[in-house]
């Protein structure tokens, strides 16, 4: 577990990622995440099912409520499912989720129903953020004439 000085160097986003991706903060512990296959080298290896793991509930006092932690895990899984790795020429159904902008995936095109995506227009050296239909951005005006 990182010490206090490690946490002080982290941004808020990185700190929340550490807290919400580790079950120790809800009072549980997973034993056997790593193992040492060779006692001569003492090099730890991540356990991807080669050795048994044990999950201990309520092993120590919780810092975060379990309900909140599990809701965050569900939201991370939902957002992660939209972040499929793009193969060349293959588009995802919803596009990539971006947590940077509050309106992402909340606005939908009235003509084709796809979500809007934020993009930047440049004119005369000035930049302006606008929201456009994903179909229009990916395929042009032949698929959507609205945005």
Q: How would you state the average pLDDT, rounded?
A: 80
Structural class: alpha+beta
Distance between the termini: 49 Å
Give start-end ranges of low-pLDDT stretches.
85-91
Total tally of structural domains? 2
Number of helices: 4
What does the radius of gyration come to?
A: 22 Å
Plain-language structure description:
This protein has helices at 4-8, 12-20, 66-81, 134-139, and strands at 29-31, 34-35, 45-46, 54-56, 116-123, 126-133. With 147 residues, the protein is an alpha+beta fold. A two-stranded antiparallel ribbon has the order 1-4. A hairpin with a 2-residue loop joins β5 and β6 (126-133). The model is unreliable at 85-91 (pLDDT under 50).
Topology, element by element:
Layout: H1 4-8, H2 12-20, E1 29-31, E2 34-35, E3 45-46, E4 54-56, H3 66-81, E5 116-123, E6 126-133, H4 134-139
Keywords:
two-stranded antiparallel ribbon; 18% strand; alpha+beta; elongated; 147 residues
């Amino acid at each position: 577990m990182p010490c206090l000085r490690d946490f002080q160097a982290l941004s808020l986003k990185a700190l929340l990622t550490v807290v919400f991706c580790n079950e120790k903060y809800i009072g549980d512990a997973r034993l056997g995440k790593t193992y040492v296959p060779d006692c001569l080298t003492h090099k730890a290896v991540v356990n991807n099912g080669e050795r048994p793991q044990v999950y201990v509930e309520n092993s120590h006092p919780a810092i975060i409520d379990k309900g909140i932690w599990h809701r965050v895990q569900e939201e991370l899984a939902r957002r992660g499912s939209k972040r499929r790795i793009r193969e060349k020429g293959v588009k995802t159904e919803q596009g990539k989720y971006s947590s940077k902008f509050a309106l992402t995936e909340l606005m939908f095109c009235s003509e084709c129903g796809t979500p809007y995506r934020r993009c930047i227009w440049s004119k005369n050296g000035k930049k302006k953020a606008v929201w456009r239909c994903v179909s229009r951005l990916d395929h042009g005006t032949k698929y959507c004439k609205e945005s």
